[in-house]
Structures are given as structure tokens and as C-alpha cells.
Task: structure prediction
Amino acid sequence: MKFQTVCFFILVTTGFAEFPDGFLFPDDFLLGAATASYQIEGGWDADGKGDNIWDTLTHERPQYVDDHSSGDVADDSYHLYLEDVKLLKAMGAQWYRFSISWARILPEGHDNYVNQPGIDYYNNLINCLLDNGIEPMVTMYHWDLPQRLQDLGGWPNWVLATYSENYARVLFKNFGDRVKLWQTFNEPQTFMDGYCSDTGMAPSINAPGIGDYLTAHTVILAHANIYRLYEREFKQQQQGKVGIALNIQWCEPETSDDVDACDRYYQFNFGIFAHPILSEEGDYPSVENERVDNNSAQEGYTTSRLPKFTQEEVTFRKGTLDFMGHNFYTAVRGREGVRGGSPSRSRDSGMIRFLDPKWPGSASSWLRVVPWGFRNTLNRIAKEYGNPPVLVTENGFSDYGGLNDTYRVLYYTEHLKEMLKAIHEDGVNVIGYTAWSLVDNFEWLRGYTEKFGVYEVDFNDPSRPRTPKESAKVLTEIFKTRRIPDRFLD
Ligand code: GBH
Result:
């Protein structure tokens, strides 16, 4: 599909201080919250669900997770989803982004056997959302690969591009009459790291500079397969939209000589997925192709570590996106230089990233509060890819817990203001936003130590009670008034 050419214009010449209406959300703009299956559901072996790679990691190598915890029970949303919908309703959320656990639907990963209780669970959730006027958005894959598919090599094995299409067909068939917003993958840039180190994210395979590129390649092929499948078999009847969720951090050059370094950061982490799908060439960013090919040759590899697309694949794939999902949290500083083992993606990118100590921190080592980076990133996406419709599918802040989460409140209000500037002042086509996250949940290798929820969850209480934090109250006010409250405008 083609997007409108960008029309950057300035709506107002006065600053925002004199133009508070600039902090109103457009009428059709969607506001809501997000979660992911492994992080909230629990019910890890309930009703026929198969194991996935996070079950394996947390059970076999609990020491990988800071507090040695797992998602076995998590928020118990498998049993308490009605509670979650109540929270969303109370907030005035118009949409809810959640993900489906592949192994709950297809315990072995394959579509020859569909686990009916898994279908029932998501049907109940989707119906309950719709009964409450909340639009469901489904992420098909948020990092919980069925273990049986990992046993076959996981994402570096290209056969997964076909298996994930088969999985997607089961989802479209069962839920597509009611679900109109789909994301194929969440943050492939992050889960490709699962193939970069034997102490990292699941499945913790140590093949840096190889396993990550193979993963990216399969994911891009899989995404296109799923998009075309929808187009062929479902779209006419179901009338939904299919996108992907990509994360990127704003990269602020250390000096004026480091602009290219930051550009490469962007291409190696965002362009690697966006370019094949949206660019004219339909290929990886040229700077990435060149650098990985050269490094591979120098390192003695006969075949480049970055796989190549066939012309047929390029044609098949180009334009397979109805909207860009964008997850934004933070920024980094970047400078020219080579860091990282040989081979590695970091080394290939030929840039060094670091954190600016002047930027306020959070509970997460990687998360600094840089709201203006959000506006910059949104502008960058718009400029580079012809202003596609953007759904911001994650944005949030971590602390160590507590109901008076003042810093989270400020994080949200400042980021929403920057997003509104991008919309109203810069003409960026942002059409919706979900806060990460609805509830405190299992934060991957950080376990339950870092909290991202706007509702607090007591993980020591078997009934997992949810309590609104200050941030839930402020987001409720924003969702219901559809503006940033005056007290946050200065
Ligand atoms: C998202 O990833 C996830 O989609 C979501 O599941 C998660 O709960 C949420 O954010 C909060 O973390 O240690 O410097 O190598 C956010 C992007 C990318 C952030 C990888 C952490 C590791 C940074 N993540 N990153 S570093």
C-alpha cells in the first residue's frame, strides 16, 4: 500500500504555551493500554497449553531472571481477564493491545492440532472487550515461541516463516470476525537478541552477528507471508489492518561528527525491518548490506552473515503494512567507533552507544527519560517512510513500585505532549497510543523487580488484586477529557 506524501506544516506560529488546544487529541485518535501474554497470563500449563521458550528458560535456568521468578502465574490474567477489562473500562480506554500465546492455541506450534480451550479463552476476552466498547488489537507474537519450534532451531530456521503463516491463519479464522487490528510481531529487534548470547533473553542461543540476522530474515519473510495471507483469504470479508511493532530509541549524536553513527544505529535497529517492508528498494538498508558483507568477507566467511532476499521475495513483500506500530521508551547517545565482539551486530554497525548521565533515570538501566526524543523519532519515521499511519503501541516508565508514581505521571504527560506536537505541529500521522502497561507484570529477565504498570498488582496475594496508581488516575482523566490537563502545561 502507498502512503500519502509527507506534508510538513506548522499549524500555529505561536508556541504551545499560548496554544493549549494543541494538547487536545484528534477526534478519531485511539487511546488505550497494552500487555503481552507471557507477561500477564499465567496458566502456563492450563488446559492443554504447550511449553514455550520462556517456560523453558524460567524453569530450567531460573538464575537468568533477577528474582528467579517466572510467568507461571504472573497476573493470572488467564483467570482474571474480566478484571483487566474492568480496569480498561474504568480508564476510558478505547482499545486494548494484548498478545496471543502461540502455544496456548497450538501446543506443538503446528496447526494440525488446535487447542480449543485456548481459542475459548481469547474468544471470551475479545467478546468481553467488545461488550464494553473496547477495540481489541492482537499481537500475534510477543516473544513466547512454542518450545517445539525452538527445538527445530527457532527463528533462524526459515521454515518458521511458513509455520507462523499457518498460525496466523488459525487466528484470522477464529478471531478475525471481531479483531480488526493485528500486529504480526512485537519488537523483532529485541527478540533477535535471544540468538546473541547464552545468558540473555530466551532462547539464549549464543550466535551473535549470525543468529540475530537469520532471525530478522525469517521474521521479515513471515511478516510478508502473514500480510499476503490476510489479503488473499480474509481481508475482503474481515476488513481489518495488519502491521508490525518496531521499537527504536532516539539516538542523539555526541558531536556534529557523529550524525552518521546515529544514522547507522537507526538503520541497524529499525531500518533492518522497516526498509525491506516500506522502502522503494525493498531491501535491507544499503549501509547495513555493505558493512555486514564487508565485515563477513574480512572475517573469512564465504557467505555474508546478512542473508539476501530474492527478487521474487522483494516484490512479494514490498508495501506489506497497513500501519506502523511504534514502541518508544528512551534515547541513547551515539558516536563513531567500533565496539563488540567479532562477529556482532554492534561491531557491524560501527557505532558506540552510551547513556547520557544528564538524562533522568528509571528503575531500568536502559531507560532514561527523554521525551523530546519521542517527537524526533516520530518525525524520522514520517520522513523516511512517507508518513505512514503510526500506532504507538508501547510507551512507559519503570520504578520499583508504589501507588504515588509521580515520575510515571510526568513521563506520560511529557511524552503525550511531545507526541501531540508531532501530530499538530509537524503533521506526523499518529493515529493511536497504548500505554505500557495496564498492570505490573513479569518484566522478562528483570522478573517482578521493575514495575511498568499503571495498576499495581500484589504478586504475594493469590488473588492478584489490582490497585490504581496515581498514573492510572491521570491517564483516566486524559482518556476521558481527551486533553492534557492544564496543571501539566507550563
Ligand atoms: C518492551 O521492550 C517490550 O515489548 C515489553 O514486553 C517490555 O515489558 C517493555 O518494553 C519494558 O521493557 O540492556 O541496553 O541492551 C522495550 C525495549 C529493548 C528495552 C531491549 C530493553 C535492553 C537494553 N527493550 N532493551 S540493553
Observations:
- Residues 20-485 form a domain with the TIM Barrel fold (CATH 3.20.20.80).
